[in-house]
Design goal:
Layout: E1 4-13, E2 21-24, E3 41-50, E4 64-69, H1 74-87, E5 91-95, H2 104-110, E6 118-122, H3 125-134, E7 138-142, E8 149-150, E9 163-167, H4 176-181, E10 184-187, H5 199-213
Parallel strand pairs: 4-5, 4-9, 5-6, 7-9, 7-10, 8-10
Antiparallel strand pairs: 1-2, 1-3
Helix pairs in contact: 1-2, 1-5
Length: about 220
């Protein structure tokens, strides 16, 4: 049986100068009123969404956790929880100013993933990282550094020890003290003018690359 996550409608504005077509879920603030002009709308399509459609299982490779170092945006953190859940990570270590799942912004973008991943909070990311090293974890940072390797050419992976993927602050990056503790540092190659991606986007790419490249 498919687990029903929620139902939704596709609605259309009846105002002749608007005609907006948009999805409507029960928790949307604009609900059945047109979010563009405030006019009357009607349901064009009604659907139920199912939780396990297009799901695909894979053989676990490296066990991956994450350490989010002073991420300032709750929306980024929620997105990371959702990406992490999709990649099968087993724990999130939240440090410094990183918002926890008690923040509405995290809940808004995590879409329930904050309930499926264990998480901890530590005021000091260095202390958290040192404890993880003592527990036998490998620390891998996603950062541009003089020893960074392109993530697309990742080799010599030790799948016997869990990996903690570290992502840093949106502006300042990973704390230099954390980088000193890391076993490896990776970066995502860029082809355009910009040198980096949004932190949540970069995390999503890296965590899925780690999860799948070591399990296929």
């Amino acid at each position: 049986m498919n687990e029903i996550l929620s139902s939704y409608q596709i609605r259309k504005c009846e105002h002749p100068e608007c005609g907006l077509r948009y999805p409507c879920v029960s928790d949307y603030t604009f609900d059945v009123r047109c979010p563009r002009c405030g006019g009357t709308t009607h349901a064009v399509i009604k659907r139920e969404r199912h939780g396990d459609q297009n799901s695909e299982s894979h053989t676990p490779g490296i066990r991956v956790a994450a350490l989010l170092d002073n991420i300032r945006s709750a929306w980024n953190v929620g997105s990371m929880f959702r990406s992490g859940d999709g990649a099968g990570i087993f724990q999130m270590h939240l440090c410094g100013i990183t918002p926890t799942p008690e923040y509405p912004g995290v809940i808004k973008t995590a879409l329930g993933a904050e309930k499926s991943i264990r998480w901890t909070w530590n005021a000091d990311s260095i202390i958290a990282a040192q404890l993880l090293r003592k527990e036998g974890c490998q620390l891998w940072a996603l950062e541009e550094d003089n020893r960074s390797e392109p993530i697309t050419k990742m080799t010599n992976l030790n799948v016997d020890k869990p990996v903690v993927l570290i992502v840093g602050n949106e502006v300042c990056g990973v704390d230099p003290g954390l980088l000193e503790l890391c076993d490896r540092v990776f970066y995502i190659p860029m082809m355009g003018v910009k040198r980096s991606l949004n932190a949540a986007v970069a995390f999503g790419i890296a965590v899925h690359y780690l999860a799948w490249s070591t399990s296929l």
